[in-house]
Fold Cobyric acid synthase.
Amino acid sequence: MSGGLLVAGTTSDAGKSVVTAGICRWLVRQGVKVAPFKGQNMSLNSFVTREGAEIGRAQAMQAQAARVEPTALMNPVLLKPGSDRSSQVVLMGKPVGELSARGYHGGRQESLLGTVLECLEELRGTYDAVICEGAGSPAEINLRRTDIVNMGIARAARLPVVVVGDIDRGGVFASFFGTVALLSPEDQALIAGFLVNKFRGDVSLLEPGLDMLQRITGRRTFGVLPYRHGLGIDEEDGLRVSLRGSVRESVVAPPVGEDVLRVAVCAIPLMSNFTDVDALAAEPGVVVRFVDRAEELVDADLVVVPGTRGTVKALEWLRERGLADAIARRAAEGRPVLGICGGFQVLGEHIEDEVESRAGHVEGLGLLPVRVRFAKEKTLTRPSGTALGEPVEGYEIHHGVAEVTGGEAFLDGCRVGEVWGTHWHGSLESDGFRRAFLREVARAAGRRFVPAPGTSFSALREEQLDLLGDLIEEHADTSALLRLIETGAPSGLPFLAPGAPS
C-alpha cells in the first residue's frame, strides 16, 4: 500500500482529530505502517518532539495512535494565537515570527505550500499510508486561494477527501451538501463522501436521510460513529478535561482513601497546554474544574495556574478578577498552589518582557523567589530528572528565562511552603511523581486522600486510543476506506452547483 486520505470537516470541532487518530489506530492494528499529518494547525496546545521541534499536541496524539514517534514533518506549520488578530508562526518546529491574520493570508501562507507538500511527500515515501487532517472547513471559500491544509493540499497531492460532520450540533445534512456545493468542480472531484460523527440513537432512523444525501450528491456515507463520552484525546483547543472528564468538571472515580481532592484550574487568557491537568483528572478521587472567579477557589485543595501565550495578560486578568488576591491568601495560609510554565512565571517577583507583550517591567504575584526575563529564542526541550524521590519527564515551551534566587528546588523551578512552580509541561504524566505530589497536596490540605497505586496515565491513554480505533473498525466501512486510501477518490463524481441539487 502507498496512499493517503484527507479527513476534512463541515466545521471546526466536527471530530477531525479523533477520526484521524481512530483511522491511524485501526490501520496500525491491521499491520499498516501509518503516519498522521496536518499541514497547518492553529492551536495553543503544543508538544516538543525528541529533536526539539514544536508541533500541535493533536498530531503528537495521532502519532501515538499510529505507534510512531512524532516529528516536525507531521505538522510543518503551527500558528499560536497571541490575540484575535495575530499569531506566532512556527515553521518546522521553530518560531519564525509574529504575523497578523491579514499578513499571513496575504502572502506568507502561499509561500509555505511548497514546504508542506515536501513534508507530506517525505512521509508518503516512508509510510504505507498518511492520514491527513484538515482545518476548519474546506468550504471557507474566502481563504481558498491561500489554502495549504484542506483542498489546497488535497488538489496538489491528489488526496481523496472524507468530510466529517457533527450530527450532535444539528444540520448535518445541510452542512454536508453545502460543503460540497460551495467547492469548485476540481475540488469537488476529490470529495469521496461523508462520515457522520456523534450520533445518538437508532441508526435506522438516519438511513433515509443518508440515502437522500447520496442521491443528491452522488457521494456515499462511509459510516455513522456513535456519541461516546469521555474520549480523552489532546485536542487543538477547547476547555475540557480528558480521560475522565467533561467541559467544566471531571467525573470522579471512587477514591482509594476516605476523601477526594478538588483541583481548581484558573482559566487564564490564551491558556496553553491545559492538558497538563489531564493526568490529575485521571486519578481516582480527584475532581478537576476550570474556574474564573475568586470564590471558586475557596473549597479547592489545589489551585493550578496553567501555561499561557500571554503571561502579562494573564497577570492582569488574575488581578482584575480578584483571583490574584485569592491565590496570595492561599499561599499565606499554607494551601497548595502549582504554577506551570506561564503560570510559574506569574507567581514570581517580576517579569521583564520586551518579546511577548513588550510591556517591559511587570510585577508578579511575588509568591516565589523568581525573576523572569523574556528571550527572543524559544526554549524547546524534553527534560528529565527526579523530584519528590521519583523519576520525572516533561517538555518545555517558553520564551521566559527564570532566575531562581531561593526556595527549595523543584524540577527546574522552586517551592516555597506549599507554592510550587516549574516550566515543565507533562510532568504529572509521570505516575510515581504525580502520586507523590498528590500526597503532598493531601497532607497540606488536611485530606485523607490516598492516590491509587495502580493508575497508569500512559495505559489509560492507550485505552482511549484503542477506543478510537474501535469506533472506526465497528462503525465505519473500513473496506471502502481502505480502497480510498489505496486508489484515491472514485472517478465520475458529479458536480453540484450551489443551491441546485439534482
Remarks:
- Residues 238-251 have pLDDT under 50 and may be disordered.
- Residues 261-454 form a domain with the Rossmann fold fold (CATH 3.40.50.880).
